[in-house]
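User: My instructor asked us to take a sequence, write out its structure as tokens, and then describe one feature of it. I'm not sure where to start. Here is the sequence I was given:
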Amino acid sequence: MYTISPTSQFKKDFKRAEKQGKDLNKLGNVLIALLRGKALPQKYFDHQLTGEMREYRECHLEPDWLLIYQLRKEEKVVTLIRIGSHSELFS
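Assistant: Let's start with the prediction itself. The structure tokens for your sequence are:
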């Protein structure tokens, strides 16, 4: 079983998602799978990022609602980096 380690930026992003009325159950379902060390279903389009962000992974909770995270298998830790839309995360 993995543990979760959210960054301070993720916590801010999470509060914004709550205010926006996002379905946080979608995030919960992904986190349960990650905590169990399971691969995410294809519908989340989970993939490794490239370039400066190559140490992170990204999955789609909705078409324009993304989770960026880091999976550290040796330590069994999932670090939650950011959550938000493409424009919030990449502009």
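For the description part of your assignment, you could build on this observation: The domain at 3-90 is CATH 3.30.2310.20 (YaeB-like fold). Try explaining in your own words what that tells you about the chain.
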